[in-house]
Write a structure and sequence with these properties.
The complex is a heterodimer. Chain A is of the alpha+beta class. Chain A folds into 2 domains: 183 residues, no CATH class; 176 residues, no CATH class. Chain A has 13 helices and 14 strands. In chain A, the strands form 3 sheets. A 6-stranded mixed barrel of chain A has the order 3-4-11-6-8-7. A two-stranded antiparallel ribbon of chain A has the order 2-12. In chain A, α1 packs across α11. The radius of gyration of chain A is 34 Å and the shape is elongated. Chain B is α/β, with parallel strands linked by helices. Chain B has a single domain, classed as Rossmann fold. In chain B, 33% of the residues lie in helices and 27% in strands. Chain B has 7 helices and 10 strands. The two termini of chain B are 30 Å apart. The chains are: A alpha+beta, B alpha/beta. The interface between A and B is medium-sized, with 22 and 28 residues.
């Protein structure tokens, strides 16, 4: 029997009962399309979370002060200690290899006022390298310069949200002055909108030189954070442990568990977030996979019905010379054709769902080629698996009994 | 040529053993028109299945054109049916919702013959069985009983078989249409076809040249000197 004949037989068998073939196919269409759409949504979520973490900075290692060490007394909680100093940051910059830059942070929150308006925002005293390390880009004017730091100038760079709060949406802020704790600052730059990331809105912020912050706002020499940027993603773990070793020795601490600071590696956060979203994607795909399985059982059900209905036809075909192989192949191809066509429609439908979700701005869904190939493979596989039993049953019929079947 | 030697057929269903054929022997030469006749339960259906290579005998031998069919495997039997035997069934067994031409082409499809050649041979075969040419593209469910049986005969002819095996071909037809079908067999026999007709009606059997009468699994009578009754067409 020729392949073209086999396909022709399949076509006429499937079109003989269009409604039934269509409904059976629908099970596969829904299964495949939900797998495609769910995996696309999961991948989209993963990518968006990763992008959001990347926007914090590049290959970042954040060093924060640890618990205030007090012997016997109550613990004041992490991040409250005054243990990090400017010399610590300088030692990191000069003493550790594979880093591109180091930024210093003296952060606090406070009331910021401008002609008749005021807002409560985060005030970040920092150094010029902050812009490159934390992916801050300037929209108008300039970021803080080295001379601003050395002269502890009273200048500020503000985020777009802060500008909107203080001067109105989209208005000119360059050259205006704002007051923080009664000290006047001149605005020298406005940053580009970056979008919220993590727990803070990085657009609602005022950047001032860290020297100025130490002098006017905190009144001490301590830092609230040191940001270290590794040269590449591969070296961040090494840099993190080097920084830890260096600071332990500078602070004369022998037991690492007693460290008065803690370090956070950006790639750790990304890895954690990826594993969370990855698990989520697997969960979604598993639910969709169950519907695919149900669709496959629908195929088997229809094929078994068909085999029973066409018993006499099978008997006739065998009587005029069809072999076991011819019969089983015919029914197997019918099942595979159903799942394969269902698979194609399902892929198109799944991609369409992903496209609509992206288009509505809910989530940037990503249809991956691998999920399409997998879906095709699975649908063809389901056709073979669930078509096998009915086809074998048809092929095993004795022509005499089949011809007599009423 | 068909040579049946001492064939038996035993069915066993658990402890119950039933013998349908008790050692039957006969020879049918090429070009003969033979009727196998017997009441229901006589074993004629079992004999038909063995003659048609749908089944093999329990003991004994069956040579068809010099080949021993009695010991063949399932696939070898399928090949014999495909190449040497044309069936005409009582209940016609055409594919539903399928055109006349495709129904007749069906045996050729399993031989892997090209579609164009198939259509040509199917047309020839339909004309030979007296089927009206204008109905070639009709679907099988749009035909009358007589037309259906002609399609069935054409399908049996299309692979140019050594033996046409007709199992109660007039059983579902009225007398007049039955006569037409029997007339078609007589015409084909005249053209040199070997035809074996299985029936329980003497009237029908008498259209053949030779009647084998089977009863209780035994061949009771082999009347070769029978004068053929001509079909009234």
């Amino acid at each position: 029997m020729k392949t073209s004949d086999l396909l022709r037989e399949t076509y006429s068998a499937l079109t003989a009962n269009k409604v039934r073939s269509g409904l059976t196919m629908l099970g596969i269409v829904i299964g495949i399309s939900s797998v495609i759409a769910m995996v696309a949504l999961g991948n989209g979520a993963q990518a968006s979370i990763q992008a959001s973490i990347q926007s914090i900075g590049s290959n970042l290692i954040i060093v924060t002060p640890g618990t205030q060490r007090s012997f016997g007394g109550p613990s004041a909680g992490r991040g409250t200690a005054q243990t990090l100093t400017v010399p610590d940051a300088q030692a990191i910059k000069t003493g550790i290899s594979n880093i591109s830059d180091v930024a210093l942070d003296v952060s606090s929150r406070g009331q910021v006022t401008a002609k008749g308006t005021n807002t409560n925002t985060s005030i970040v005293g920092t150094s010029p390298s902050y812009a490159s390390i934390r992916n801050v880009t300037i929209d108008e004017g300039n970021f803080l310069s080295d001379s601003n730091i050395s002269s502890a100038s009273k200048v500020a760079v503000i985020g777009p949200t802060t500008r909107d709060d203080l001067f109105g949406v989209g208005s000119e802020a360059l050259g205006q002055t704002i007051k923080i704790k009664g000290v006047e600052f001149k605005i020298i730059g406005v940053t580009k909108a970056k979008g919220g990331s993590g727990f803070t809105n990085s657009d609602d912020v005022v950047y001032i030189p860290y020297t100025t912050a130490q002098h006017y706002l905190t009144g001490n020499q301590y830092l609230s954070e040191i940001d270290v940027s590794g040269l590449s993603a591969d070296v961040t773990t090494q840099v993190q442990s080097d920084v830890t070793t260096l600071l332990l020795s500078r602070h004369n601490i022998k037991d690492p568990t007693q460290a008065d600071f803690s370090t956070l590696n950006q790639s750790d956060i990304i890895a954690t977030a990826s594993s969370v979203t990855g698990t989520f994607t697997i969960l979604l795909a598993a639910v969709a996979g169950i519907s695919l399985l149900v669709g496959g059982i629908g195929i088997m059900n229809m094929m078994l019905t068909t085999v029973t209905e066409r018993t006499r036809e099978i008997g006739l075909r065998k009587a005029i010379g069809a072999k076991r192989k011819d019969i089983s192949l015919q029914f197997l191809i019918e099942a595979v054709a159903l799942t394969f066509i269902g698979g194609i429609i399902g892929v198109i439908l799944g991609a369409a769902i992903a496209f609509i979700v992206s288009d509505l701005g809910i989530l940037q869904a990503q249809v991956s080629l691998s999920s399409i190939i997998l879906a095709f493979g699975v649908s063809a596989g389901i056709g073979i698996i669930f078509g096998w039993y009915p086809a074998t049953r048809a092929a095993a019929m004795s022509p005499i009994d089949a011809l007599r079947y009423e | 040529m068909i040579e049946i030697k001492n064939i038996t057929k035993t069915y066993s269903n658990g402890d119950i053993v039933f013998t349908a054929l008790h050692g039957i022997s006969f020879t049918i030469n090429d070009g003969e028109f033979v009727a196998i006749m017997g009441p229901s339960g006589s074993g004629k259906s079992t004999l038909m299945h063995i003659l048609g290579a749908l089944d093999t005998p329990t003991t004994g031998t069956y040579f068809l054109d010099g080949r021993d069919v009695s010991t063949m495997s399932e696939d070898e039997l399928a090949d014999i049916r495909k190449e040497k035997i044309g069936f005409v069934f009582q209940s016609f067994n055409l594919l539903p919702r399928t055109t006349v031409l495709r129904n007749v082409e069906l045996p050729l499809m399993y031989e892997g013959i090209d579609m164009k050649v198939r259509a040509e041979r199917a047309k020839k075969s339909l004309i030979a069985s007296g089927f009206d040419e204008s109905h070639f593209e009709h679907k099988s469910n749009q035909l009358s009983g007589g037309q259906i049986q002609r399609v069935a005969i054409a399908r049996a002819l299309v692979n140019n078989p050594s033996l046409i095996l007709a199992d109660e071909p007039t059983g579902n037809l009225d007398t007049r249409t039955g006569e037409i079908v029997l007339g078609t067999f007589q015409k084909l026999n005249k053209e040199g076809r070997t035809i074996v007709l299985i029936t329980h009606e003497r009237d029908v059997a008498e259209h053949a040249d030779r009647i084998l009468f089977i009863k209780d699994g035994n061949l009771l009578e082999d009347s070769k000197k029978h004068t053929r009754r001509m079909a009234k067409i």
